[in-house]
Design a protein that fits this description.
- The chain folds into four domains: 3-69; 71-136, Beta Barrel (Thrombin, subunit H), CATH 2.40.10; 150-254, Thrombin, subunit H; 260-369, Pdz3 Domain (Roll).
- Helix content is 27%, strand content 35%.
- It contains seven helices and 22 strands.
- It has helices at 3-22, 29-68, 100-103, 241-254, 271-276, 295-299, 333-343; strands at 72-78, 83-89, 95-98, 108-112, 118-127, 132-136, 158-163, 171-185, 191-198, 210-212, 218-225, 236-240, 260-261, 264-268, 285-290, 306-310, 313-317, 321-325, 328-329, 349-356, 359-366, 368-369.
- Strands 1-2-3-6-5-4 form a six-stranded antiparallel barrel. Strands 7-8-9-12-11-10 form a six-stranded antiparallel β-barrel. Strands 14, 15, 18, 19, 20 and 21 form a six-stranded antiparallel sheet that branches.
- Helix 1 runs antiparallel to helix 2.
- The protein starts with a helix and ends with a strand.
Amino acid sequence: MDIKDKNNSFLPLAAVIFGMVLGGVLVGAHTQAQINSLEQSIENLEQGNVVNLNHTEDSSLTQLFRQVEGSAVSIRAYGADQAQGSGFVYDDEGHIVTNEHVIDGAERVEVTFTDGTRQDAEVIGTDPFTDLAVLEVDNTDLEPLELADSEQVQVGQRAVALGNPFGLQSSMTSGIISQKERTIRIERGFSIPNILQTDASINPGNSGGPLMNINGEVVGVNTAIESRTGTFSGVGFAVPSNTVERVVPEIIEDQDYEHSWIGVRGIDVSPEIAEEMDLEEASGFMIIDVVEDGPADLAGLRGGETEAEIEGEPTRIGGDVITAIDGERMRGIDDILVYLARETEPGDQIEVTAIRDGEEQNFDLTLQSRPEE
């Protein structure tokens, strides 16, 4: 809260009291002493305490920057095209976390620390489906950042982004967590679920840098912006820290990460689809196609065979509608992706509940690894 806001909170009260004094309602030495004390309190708030509140917040951000600055890095990737991004120290063995799209196709990757030191980095591995990558530098004298539990992050919580927007090294911006559990599409046709949304300024060059809480713990990895101009417009996205905690150790060990895959293409059930298919409610995920010899195909799930106009577009309908996995309700593709990511791994068998011809049926499905293409 700034001074103007604070004044607006207290001045009406002061005006009432001063009006009472001028009108002769309050009299006597004791009452006058109370008025003098109140006037002094208001003056203190206006001149000191409110400023101190802002000063405390500013000092906290300054202290946070000094605490974490050395753990953030600038990254340049050289290849057919040159890319620039950010990253942060993951552990004391020289591992650096960044975005996969920052180093995709790179022939050489260079990491620059805040003290100006530059080092070539080895790409240990990547996971394009979460847009995460791990680099390694020959430097163990590093201060890794701690990962927070992103499940505990709340909307409205302070968020601080550290990175190198437009190549401007070691820049900090702050804002809040605007929302949780967003889903963003990636170029390969898949989606990344459970994404954090923030209004902390994220611009080209911030990709791969940490999104932190006020304690300096990483809650996410800045990965994308929603923009029609290519620059920040108030909506940024970050891969949550719990995804980092799940994916990065496997990248370090195996150079990649295997995602569970059921092998379907479809659409969330809308009221229009529910009406066309005579469903009781507009909920679930309708299968349009199944991949031949994929998990869904082998389990006996089916796609649609009837064409209808949905939202002005010809759409195949009539396929099985997935409503639950292992007894847990699935309202649409986002729920399916989050469940598969959190609760399963390739090779696991799951029970898929689907509506076919108006009746619920259960299918035993063995998950496979998501293909790269």
